[in-house]
Specification:
The protein has 192 residues and is an alpha/beta fold. The chain contains five helices and eight strands, in the order βαβααββαβαβββ. The radius of gyration is 16 Å and the shape is globular.
Length: 192
């Protein structure tokens, strides 16, 4: 069975929104923290062989950038990956290879995870994150946490995300203050 990893760039206050979405006022708030070491950590976390799970908005934003991006391990991996897209309009997809998840997201993802193939990575969708956690479809969460507070914007965990427990797998701090933390989904929330 394929593993599904959620990867996200996130502020200390949980914001994942960036400059490409809905007139977000802060521009590219991750840019001042980009370093070769951080780029290498993201590339290592993705691996060299993976497929992508993308919501339609993320697919549309990425399809305007990644096909034209200069060759690099990250760009080459993203462009080569099969993009499994949650969309009501699969016929309008152009940047491939791609496949629509299907009308039943949960069943579609169960089918995709059960197939042979590389691990799946979800980037950029708080809506899909909630669905994955609710139905036990996510295996890991990798957060790239930036030392900023934004105060407003789309949050990583949307309202209504089911409570869950996670186990820390690894953590790595960059000199820039960015922290990479990987968590394994451990199950329902435990209380005292």
């Amino acid at each position: 069975m394929r593993k599904l990893k959620i990867m996200e760039h996130i502020s200390l206050d949980g914001v994942i929104q960036n400059s490409g979405e809905n007139n977000f006022p802060y521009g590219d708030w991750t840019a001042p923290y980009r370093t070769p070491a951080g780029r290498d950590a993201v590339a290592a976390a993705q691996g060299t062989n993976f497929d992508l799970l993308l919501g339609r908005r993320t697919y549309d934003m990425w399809s305007g950038y990644w096909p034209k991006a200069p060759s690099s391990p990250i760009a080459d991996g993203i462009n080569a990956a099969t993009k499994y897209v949650v969309t009501h309009r699969p016929e309008s997809l152009e940047w491939g290879p791609f496949e629509g998840v299907g009308p039943d997201i949960v069943e579609g993802l169960r089918r995709i995870k059960s197939q042979d193939g590389p691990d799946l990575i979800l980037w950029g969708s708080s809506t899909l994150t909630s669905t994955l956690l609710e139905h036990g479809l996510a295996d890991e969460v990798l957060l790239t946490v930036y030392p900023v507070l934004l105060g407003a914007g789309k949050r990583f965990f949307a309202e209504g995300t089911p409570p869950r427990t996670f186990e820390l797998v690894s953590t790595k701090a960059m000199p820039s203050g960015v922290i990479f933390s990987t968590y394994k989904v451990a199950g329902p929330l435990k209380t005292g």
